[in-house]
């Protein structure tokens, strides 16, 4: 069959119209993202002499954030759970940024023992930290207990960052001026706060609601910590990156992953998803701004009501401090 007769078959009529429509839609989405994303290239922030720690830096948003920070001269500590994956990411970031100021640290955020051992190593390597990006997270796990008796999703997405940040408070304050950036999710609006979830108990959670709830706890933590750090030179904010095509769905069933892949055509890529996070890391106008939640368009937005309740926040802080033995030295 000649090419001409193939193109003349009836399927090409509606088929090509559909293809053109999809391409136009894709172009529209790209333009929309471009208009709504912060102008990273226009930001002149330079980070020579600064140390940044990024968790979950071996892939997705964390890797893109780490690369940009390295390009701007920061010494970047890639805090990864797998040495092998972390080393691969480090090599790639090194090649892309031409930075020789990258360091790999091993940490499993779902394990309090691992967080403590990572902090001991980190403080020896770097007594001052100017930027901490709590980026690592998991989703798609049913209630699963870790060997330390915590729920895996809450341990990774909330308890790990809580412990890590608190143990690094001294290093952040020694830096004189430092930022903590918590990577949150719009899914926090679908969560609620039940402290028993931290240990795999409490009100039953529907499909993937543990992810939503864990992000809500992170929003409450962001506000509490910001209050506690007032006047120290350390600011704490959280940000929602938008819907980004990364490995975040890797623990879901193949059908969800397939759907995510199909729709990925309209999602942001990792570099675009990193931009709101980088805004919180770099933007000069955020000096002194703390305790806020930023949308993926980099606009200050109110977090859900439960995350703004001071009594809930106090109780949650006390419970998490007890669970993590926070008063125990690193
Ligand atoms: N993608 C989105 O649409 C979206 C939307 C809203 C919010 N977010 C948030 O954006 C952040 C980055 O996610 P992403 O989309 O870039 O997903 P990702 O590609 O899956 O990256 C997640 C990172 O977290 C690491 N991680 C998971 N469990 C860990 C543990 N126990 N200890 C240490 N590291 C661990 C992963 O390491 P391994 O490779 O070893 O698993 C990976 O490097 C997350 O906080 C996520 O909730 C993403």
From TrEMBL:
Cited InterPro entries: NAD(P)-bd_dom_sf, SDR_fam
GO molecular function list: oxidoreductase activity
Q: What Pfam family is a match, any one?
A: adh_short
Native species? Catagonus wagneri
* Alphabetical UniProt keywords: Membrane, Oxidoreductase, Transmembrane, Transmembrane helix
Report if keyword Oxidoreductase is assigned: yes
Top-level taxon: Eukaryota
Q: Which SUPFAM superfamilies match?
A: NAD(P)-binding Rossmann-fold domains
- Any stretches that span the bilayer, and where are they? 12-29
Name this polypeptide is given: Retinol dehydrogenase 12-like
Query: Could you say which residues form the signal peptide?
Result: none
Entry's family note: Belongs to the short-chain dehydrogenases/reductases (SDR) family.
